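Researcher: Before we compare anything, I want clean individual predictions. No alignment, no superposition, just each chain on its own. First chain goes here; please echo the sequence and then give the structure tokens.
Model: Echoing the first chain and its structure:
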Amino acid sequence: MRKLFTILMLVLTITSPVLAVEPDEMLKDPALEARARNLSENLRCLVCQNQSIDDSNAPLAKDLRILLRERLVAGDTDEEVVNYLVGRFGEFVLLKPLFTGHTLILWLGPFAVLLLGIFALFRFRKKSTHKAATEDELSDDEKQKLAQLLDGK
């Protein structure tokens, strides 16, 4: 039983998410810290690119976490903090890009490619069945030759 408990604790420890936020970065106010964590989960580490700044150990991610917390302590709203970071680093800092005119292809592109693929598949299939049907039919000359061969036997 003790061995099972040890294995369970080890599995839980290994599989639990590891956050890169260091204790010296955390805010004393739990409400502000919760807002900071919520915001940092949606901001991209510019070094790692596929991790949030909350998960990244990169020095730039640490700087972004500190900057985010400074803005919250200064009294900025969540939207103001995000707008400040986007204004300073560009929309790439957002893990989920905004739905705007210049990101339209990013959001709708996969659906357009899927629809084109489905259209091409049906078109190819229709051509191949039509082609197979026309290839199976005999011309008049071929029908006469076949009739002569069958009658000759």
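Researcher: Okay. Second chain, same rules.
Model: Second chain and its structure:
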Amino acid sequence: MVAPLDLLDLDTQLNDEERDIRAVVRRVADDRVRPYVADWYEKGSTPVRELALEFGKLGLLGMHLTGYGCAGASAVSYGVACMELEAADSGVRSLVSVQGSLAMYAIWKYGSEEQKQRWLPGMAAGELIGCFGLTEPDHGSDPANMSTRARRDGADWILDGGKMWITNAPLADVAVIWARAEEGVYGFAVPTDTPGFAAREIKNKMSLRASSTGEITLDGVRLPESARLPEARGLKAPLSCLTEARFGIIWGSMGAARDCLRVALEYATTREQFGRPIGGFQLTQAKLADMTLELQKGFLLALHLGRLRDAAGALRPEQVSVGKLNNVREAIAIARTCRTILGGNGISGEYPVMRHANNLESVLTYEGTSEIHQLVIGQKLTGLNAFA
């Protein structure tokens, strides 16, 4: 039996350092996540702080950033790390993505030197947890109309409003909060012990259950001017952070798809019906062949975007949209098809396939729905704005 990504020898497209990083992350996922994640998912509870400390020791938190205790790894190295983490569970990859590519990146890119020194070393080590507050109860895909407000009061700022579906919020030590002021959209690094800041855990999720998700309430949160991210002006700043984080999703979603296909292949070659393995039936082989094709195309797309980013320093938003739209859409299709190969066993927590499929429903939505990415691509192709 050939592993899906071995069919075209795609391993040869990675260099030695990238393969070494992949091996280290795969090993920690095998040791610290896979044996426990089904139970975490069942209970809806994850040892976030313990995982963060372990990931920090390995240099995974903010690994693509430079300085302040960050590893300064390449985009492709970060991508393969996300792939291995999400092969274990999307919620675990979300922990790393939100910490490094949203909260840390926002401070690293737009913060003052004082803010960087205060927060980034501890976040890189996993000693401090961060979250990123942009989405609101009534404003998801339309952040330009956010309701959270920042107003001046003497030398201070007062924040009022709320944020919803915020990964890591219930445990965070610092929250990057985006709010609208008279001058436009500003970002703030908010210590979560500030009076008026509250975060409650969102319960009864059917997806990303091995991830801490919260609702943030801001009730007269008073902050000094030193809490404002001085280089963040306008909506472009938080949107650039989302572009940064979406890159990890392009890779991570392929990890979830690969894990589903791995399980389906093993099952198809050992499960017997009508006197032979179900992998010997034409319909099953057709499913496996089509899924492997899409997995390899998705990996090559992720790798191409990673090489572009390493060469150019950044990707254009529409390039990231192509990757997120294609890879998450194909990953969820692969997960659902793998479930059919496993039959009734496909819904059992003894196998990871339904867990991956459920998780990918959230990945499909967060950091830009498929429809939003279609419009980003469409606008680039036509020059016409169809958002309004």
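Researcher: What stands out in the second chain?
Model: The mean pLDDT is 96. Additionally, Residues 236-270 form the longest helix (35 residues).
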